[in-house]
Structure formats: structure tokens, C-alpha cells
Design brief:
Blueprint lengths: L2 H17 L9 E5 L4 E4 L15 E4 L4 E3 L8 H10 L5 E5 L2 H9 L9 H6 L5 E2 L14 H4 L4 E4 L3 E6 L2 H23 L8 H14 L57 H18 L2
Parallel strand pairs: 6-7
Antiparallel strand pairs: 1-2, 1-5, 2-3, 3-4, 5-8, 7-8
Helix pairs in contact: 1-6, 3-6, 7-8
Bound molecules: zinc ion.
Zinc ion binds next to loops.
Length: 287
């Protein structure tokens, strides 16, 4: 990973998370694994919207500062944990996007299979149990999800995404918050119609054709690594929140009183058209 490129990308991702309201004050942190031994990270106590490249710090995999004049993020332990668990990923973004964090506070994972671009790029998003920020407690609850998901809600806290590079991890955060906003609106309007397993299957084939890397937990009955490395046995309450589909009975209950509208008799043409537009947009964004 080119160090200068990584610095520019972290500053840019910081500007975007701040401008889009995914963090308040000095919240949030972003990092990039620049080689086998070093991680470039945002500093603590600085607004992510106004960072300069010289504010960034480099730490080793023990969290020891290697360079930089400011102190590294207090959440660097979580970043190191994620890099150790996911050697295929090179960047981490942690923020508190309000709608996704609202789901994390309400204890509702983002598991409904409702949006083609989310199925293609992200899959579903589980909630990691609460851990005190700024220390090792925050990482351990992510362990059971880490191998099978690239985005995690953190209970009563926020969200973390991992990516192939900084912008890729940032885009997952943006998709996550967008997903949460749309799902919230759908619930307020009476409930979400979820895609069928057949429709999701078509989207996963598109994902394969596009060569998108990393796990995708869409509708997987039981991701294989769910309890790997955990000392705790998997219990029924640890069930993996895979994306729900219509045929799996996944339509959401309305928030209050209203009746969810029935799904149209045949939504395939609409889904096909949405899928075509999503794929066009993703291709346009690809470097
Ligand atoms: Zn946080």
C-alpha cells in the first residue's frame, strides 16, 4: 500500500464521514494497513472533518506508536484485532452514523434483503454485543461475526466496516447508513417487502461476475466461521442474522398500527430494472 495514497485517502474519508454527519465532534477513527508490520491511523482528539496528512500516526501491531506527533486513535486496538482476524482486508472505518446506530441502539440488525446494491456489495449486518469503547472489550463481541461479515453494528455505540482499501471501507459505511435510512422509512410506511430467494440468487450471480471479493452473508443458512475462535459455544441466541427473504417470511412488521402492503403480484421486471441500474452505477464507480 502506497503510504502517501493511504494518507490522502484517510483524510478524504474523514472529510466525508464528518460532512455526511456520520460522526460528531472528534468521534470516529479510520486506519489503513500499510504493510505487514504497520498501520496508518487517525489521531485521537481531532475532528475527522479537518485532518491534515501530518496529523496521521503510524503504529505497529502491538499498538506502539512508530511515527507521528499526535497520539493514535483510542480504538486502535479494535483496528489491530480486525487486521489480525481478516488478513484479506486493508482498511477499517469506525463511525456513529445516526440511523444505523439507531438500529444498533434498538437492537435490530440490518438483515432484510430489500435493496439490490446492498445484497451485491455488503450483505447483511449483524450487531456485536456492547463493549466499553477505547479498550479490548469492544473487540471480543465482534469475533463471532468477523470472518463472515464486512460491516458490524456495535450495540449502543455505532458501526465499523472493513475494506480492501480506505475508500472501499468508507463506501461500505455509506451503503450501511443508506440501507438503514431506507429500511427505517419502509418501516414507518408500513413495512418492507423483501426480495425472494430467487431474486437474491440472481444478485449474487451478478456479484460473482463483478468479481467483488470478501464474504457475502446474503441468505446463507449458516456462515461457516460463526463461532470460530470464540471460547463461547454458539447458542440459539447467537443465531446468525442472515438476510431475510420473502420466501423465508422476512417481511418486516410495521412500527405501529398500519398494515403492510401486499407485495405486487410480479416484481421481477422491476427488480431486473433496478438491478440493471445498480450494476451500471457500480461499474461507473469502479476504477
Ligand atoms: Zn465510536
Amino acid at each position: 500500500m502506497n503510504l502517501h495514497r493511504a494518507k490522502l485517502d484517510i483524510v478524504e474519508a474523514g472529510r466525508r464521514v464528518y460532512q455526511r454527519g456520520y460522526v460528531a465532534s472528534n468521534d470516529g477513527n479510520i486506519s489503513c494497513r500499510i504493510d505487514e508490520d504497520r498501520i496508518l491511523t487517525t489521531p485521537t482528539g481531532v475532528s475527522k472533518g479537518f485532518m491534515k496528512v501530518e496529523d496521521l500516526c503510524v503504529v505497529d501491531f502491538d499498538g506502539k506508536q512508530v511515527s507521528g506527533t499526535m497520539r493514535p486513535s483510542s480504538e486502535i486496538g479494535m483496528h489491530i484485532f480486525l487486521y489480525r482476524e481478516r488478513p484479506d482486508m486493508h482498511a477499517v472505518v469506525h463511525a456513529h452514523p445516526p440511523t444505523a446506530t439507531g438500529f444498533a441502539v434498538a437492537g435490530i440488525p440490518l438483515t432484510e434483503c430489500v435493496l439490490p446494491e446492498v445484497v451485491i456489495t455488503l450483505g447483511s449486518v449483524p450487531i456485536a454485543d456492547y463493549g466499553t469503547p477505547g479498550g479490548p472489550e469492544i473487540s471480543e463481541p465482534i469475533r463471532k461475526w468477523v470472518k463472515d461479515y464486512d460491516a458490524y453494528l456495535l450495540e449502543n455505540h455505532g458501526a465499523t466496516t472493513i475494506g480492501l482499501d480506505v475508500i472501499n471501507a468508507y463506501h461500505k459505511m455509506e451503503t450501511l447508513e443508506h440501507f438503514a435510512k431506507i429500511l427505517l422509512v419502509a418501516r414507518q410506511l408500513g413495512g418492507a417487502n423483501v426480495l425472494s430467494e430467487e431474486q437474491v440468487g440472481k444478485l449474487l450471480k451478478i456479484r460473482d461476475r463483478m468479481g467483488i471479493q470478501g464474504p457475502n452473508p446474503a441468505c446463507a443458512p449458516e456462515p461457516p466461521h460463526a463461532s470460530a475462535g470464540s471460547d463461547q459455544p454458539t447458542t440459539t441466541t447467537d443465531a446468525i442474522p442472515t438476510l431475510k427473504t420473502r420466501s423465508a417470511g422476512g417481511s418486516l412488521a410495521p412500527l405501529s398500527g398500519s398494515t403492510p402492503s401486499s407485495p405486487p403480484a410480479d416484481t421481477s421486471p422491476l427488480i431486473d430494472e433496478i438491478t440493471r441500474r445498480v450494476v451500471e452505477e457500480l461499474r461507473r464507480r469502479s476504477p
